[in-house]
Write a structure and sequence with these properties.
The protein has a domain of 71 residues: OB fold (Dihydrolipoamide Acetyltransferase, E2P) (Beta Barrel), CATH 2.40.50.140. The chain contains one helix and five strands.
């Protein structure tokens, strides 16, 4: 069978390693679900998510055309528990926690402009 990237297929877990799980898609084709593609979030032990012999639905993420290795994902078929930016208000890099934002740039701009003009004036002399 010819597989395509993005295709959803059903397979059987044939082996588990510390780096991922091997899944047999058909008699001749086997793919790997990397540990990072098993679920959203941290995974301490792969056997908590899948076991040898489990039948699971996976999505084909990549097919290496030279070695015919197939990368699979279980995570892409799951809805994340929360959006990665859902908690933006509490992350200081977005300026909400400190309350500063771009206001500080607006306050400092006249001072910076004056200093830059003085330096240009000095360099011309």
């Amino acid at each position: 069978m010819v597989y395509k990237i993005g295709q959803k297929v059903r397979g059987t877990v044939t082996g588990i390693q510390p780096y991922g799980a091997f899944v047999s898609i058909d008699e001749d084709t086997q793919g790997l679900i990397h540990i990072s593609e098993l679920k959203h979030g941290y995974i301490k032990d792969i056997s908590e998510i899948v076991s040898k012999g489990d039948e699971i639905d996976v999505m084909i993420m990549d097919i290496d055309e030279y070695s015919n290795k197939i990368s699979l994902s279980l995570r892409s078929l799951q809805k994340p528990k929360y959006h990665p930016f859902a908690n933006r208000k509490n992350i200081s890099r977005y300026g909400r926690k400190t309350g500063i934002g771009f206001k500080s740039i607006d306050d400092k701009m006249p001072e910076w402009t004056e200093r830059a003009l003085k330096e240009i004036e000095i360099s011309r002399k």
